[in-house]
Amino acid sequence: MDFLECVKGRRSVRKFKDTKIGHDVLLRVVEYSSFSPSWKNSQTARYIVVEDRDILDKIADDCLNGFVFNANTIKQAPALVLVTYVTGRSGYEKDGSFSTSKGDRWEMFDAGIASQTFSLAAFNEGLGCVIFGIFNEEKVSEVVGIPKDQKLATMIAIGYPDEEPAMPKRKSVEELVEFR
Ligand SMILES: Cc1cc2nc3c(=O)[nH]c(=O)nc-3n(C[C@H](O)[C@H](O)[C@H](O)COP(=O)(O)O)c2cc1C
Question: Most buried of the four, 7, 37, 52, 146, by CB within 10 Å?
């Protein structure tokens, strides 16, 4: 797929076909995500793919602080990818002190870059996905059993699209840029 087609054509998808995603496809998507830049090449992003319907339903029912909109998406998604990051590396010096005034915020920054690369790579594979911001981090971490050295950055519902969403309006370039 052409770069512009990929960047402009990717949409957040919230309705999916009832088709399982092959693990070879998901592994390819993660492989492409691994090319993302990261703090001192620390590569702290990790991907936990949840396919078990009981766990997906438990997340939808109990871990979204009652946000039904996201629950409806998860209920019919074949998979939910938990993007986590290994803590204490991105943004840190070797002695454990912060490298910059942004403290540990580079951890989420790296996970965000990785999540966007993941989303674009998924689109390139014919998949659709949506990044979630609304969920109960503590509950999801407990239900899925996230390793102690990792924290949950986001959850990405993924599957073969069963909708073609229109592009939400974008701001003009003039609104976004200033030259000094
Ligand atoms: C950090 C972040 C959090 C988001 N949280 C949610 C969410 O909880 N539920 C949802 O349906 N979409 C969520 N979205 C998707 C946005 O609504 C979507 O990206 C935006 O409307 C632009 O649409 P597009 O992705 O199709 O370009 C989130 C996106 C980002 C980047």
Answer: 146
